[in-house]
Amino acid sequence: xxHLIALLVRHxxxxxxxxVFLEQLGLPIPAVPTLVVAGALTRATKMSSTSIILGxxxxxxxxxxxxxxxxxxxxxxxxxxxxxxxxxxxxCVRDTESRFDRWGMPSLLFAKFVPGFxxxxxxxxxxxxxxxxxxxxxxAAGAFLWAGTFVAAGRAFYRAVDRLLNSLAxxxxxxxxxxxxxxxxxIVAKWWQRVTFMRKLRLARITPSELLTLIEGKRDPLIFxxxxxxxxxxxxRRIPLAVIMVGEEIPNHVAGIARDREIILYCT
Length: 268
Fold this sequence. Notes:
3-stranded parallel sheet
């Protein structure tokens, strides 16, 4: 175990920075466990918590700035691309837009604590032409709060983390298998969640021409425009007769409607 700690002390800080950078780019490599372990090691070794936190903030800003610039140049196309490659369901962009529309730039203060929001928020800020200076200020503050929280947690629970590291060290090469297995399970679970979501979506989808047929056939479908306010400002076009509402309002509106009436929802 002492050899492992010595290795982490010598090379661990740059590895933490790299882990944070890759995670903020969108790779499924969780940085929270690394930050917690690094925080614990600062209690027993000569690793500097200040270097870990500041380096993590810089790495996070670097990755987020790339997404911010892409969002500024490519607009919402980069969000659609992120949603396609994301392991989260395709509602990720809508959920992020809803939060960003509600809280604005201050949402970056807690974005990194919300799975999915961390990657989508920076390009969304760029796509909505937010101030680059404000972005850097809020993003840096959010990164500092995020990294500092988990490093502090590692320092507070360093004894438990030390016991875990000793257990992994006793496993030898099997420790790599265990960690890799846990990561694989998380990825497979997220992939299956997305597949299930898309399968249900295909079953429930209606084409524009089919909706036009319903309207012209006097079927009187009830149409809800459930786009976020941000999406409606970006693209003011809407289906005629559609009722604008947020998703949380839908149950109240459909409570007294006949069960055989067609209800159509559309978003981004």
